[in-house]
Model the fold of this input.
Amino acid sequence: MTGSLAVTWACWFGLGCLIVALLFAIIRLIRGPTLPDRILALDLITTLALGFAVLVAILTGFYLYLDIAISLGLVGFLSTVALARYVLKRAQARGGEQ
Done:
């Protein structure tokens, strides 16, 4: 087995694992049960999409996908921080009402 064939097989195996993880993340996103669980599932889906972009870049040799992955990582991080602030403000508002 050559090195390039091993990398190709590893990428396809990685894509399969990412698909299974994506299915579990979507189930967690739908079932919840709380808002922080859903936010965490969205963050995981963003991370999985980043992994997809990197593996596709390796498989195709079109490395523009790496720039897309970096941008997606930055946007995913900022959205997670924004949603965490929203949950914190919401919890503080509920605590003040009681």
